[in-house]
Amino acid sequence: MTRHHPDSLSLMEYSAGNLSDPHALCIRLHLERCPQCRSRVDTLDSLGAVMMDHQPKVSVADTSFDQLMARIDNTPEPSPEAVARPKVDPLMKLLGQDINDLPWKRQLADVSVLDISDKFPGQNERVVLQKLVSGGKAPAHTHRGDETTIVLQGAFSDQNGVFNQWDFVVLNEEDEHRPVAVGCEDCITLSVLSAPLKLTGTFTRLLNPFLR
């Protein structure tokens, strides 16, 4: 069960089609396994359609945005029966193979990566798959920009809690953490980065000039 979700503004931007392709993919992957957020986006889509139909007649009050956000946040959570597996896995379609069979590149002792930025031509962000071996620790780091991550397999923990499969997390330069893979399988995540990470460990910080 997912416990960490995109915020209302991100869902609104997704509904409006304003997100970059990599960010939209992260949210889509989450939506296809999270009936709660999927219901909220359905509400947004319906509201957007109504507003478009009545656009010439509508005057927007100063409080309209706050009222809309409150309506989204109060959308009732759907029943477990509403959960459905996607008919077509967008990540499988993008990669052409299972994530465990990819040509991973060992970056550090417990961490392997695969840069898939070339799958999104014309985008300025870096899009990276990361694999942390079961029980392994990623180096302590902060961020030079924003990082959006979705957990594709397994789980990891840091000072903010435990992030399970399909959980969604957004970090920025104010966040410093050291993820640890928990459970019995490797933790695989998909991240969209606006800028390189910044390693903060005593020795690993020497690698910062080589990160992109």
Automatic annotation (TrEMBL):
Signal peptide coordinates: none
Annotated InterPro entries: Anti-sigma_ChrR (IPR012807), Anti_sigma_zinc_sf (IPR041916), ChrR-like_cupin_dom (IPR025979), RmlC-like_jellyroll (IPR014710), RmlC_Cupin_sf (IPR011051)
Residues forming coiled coils: none
Residues in ChrR-like cupin domain copies: 98-190
Name of the protein in its database record: Anti-sigma factor
Organism: Marinobacter fuscus
Native organism taxonomy: Bacteria, Pseudomonadati, Pseudomonadota, Gammaproteobacteria, Pseudomonadales
